[in-house]
């Protein structure tokens, strides 16, 4: 008789454990968020007379970084300065701005206020549009952008 009672208790405990395990709420995995600066020191950028700066934080071991830097370089003009800040040669700036993922691209004004940023690869079209948007925020509405419908 004792065996039957012990077996019954074991079965009940097992069933309760299974039910509780199934009802346990699993926390969603945490998502890594990458740091992107919101303000850069204009002295660090050596922006000169340009009104805008595209700063591209890169690494010499990153092939995507080279592509993003080349696309940014194509936008260099009298009003838009471009600076590639490579980890191996400018590690101090990567540390100062807590850059923990490359490529990190920021578009800032001459005071260093970041108006746009991207992490990872970017198309030339998206980069051009972002720079145009920060330089002239009304440009999107003047071109009949789909958001106006």
What does this structure look like?
The protein is an alpha+beta fold and 149 residues long. It has a domain at 42-142: 3-Layer(aba) Sandwich (Glutaredoxin), CATH 3.40.30. The chain is built from 6 helices and 4 strands, in the order ααβαβαββαα. The chain is elongated, with a radius of gyration of 27 Å.
Kindly report how far apart the N and C termini lie: 80 Å
Number of helices: 6
How much of the sequence lies in strands comes to 15-25%
Mean pLDDT: 86
Which sequence of SSEs, written as H and E, runs from N to C?
HHEHEHEEHH
**CATH architectural type of the domain at 42-142:** 3-Layer(aba) Sandwich
- Counted beta strands: 4
CATH class of the domain at 42-142: Alpha Beta
Side by side, the strands of the main sheet go 2-1-3-4
Low-confidence stretches: none
CATH superfamily of the domain at 42-142: Glutaredoxin
InterPro entries: Thioredoxin-like_sf
């Amino acid at each position: 008789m004792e065996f039957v009672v012990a077996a019954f208790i074991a079965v009940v405990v097992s069933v309760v454990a299974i039910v509780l395990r199934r009802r346990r709420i699993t926390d969603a995995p945490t998502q890594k968020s990458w740091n992107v600066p919101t303000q850069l020191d204009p002295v660090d950028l050596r922006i000169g007379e340009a009104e805008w700066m595209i700063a591209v934080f890169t690494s010499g071991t990153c092939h995507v970084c080279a592509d993003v830097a080349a696309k940014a370089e194509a936008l260099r003009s009298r009003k838009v300065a471009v600076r590639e800040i490579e980890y191996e040669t400018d590690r101090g700036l990567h540390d100062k701005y807590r850059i923990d993922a490359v490529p990190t691209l920021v578009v800032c004004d001459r005071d260093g206020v970041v108006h746009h940023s991207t992490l990872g690869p970017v198309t030339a079209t998206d980069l051009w549009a972002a720079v145009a948007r920060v330089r002239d925020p009304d440009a999107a509405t003047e071109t009949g952008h789909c958001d106006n419908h």
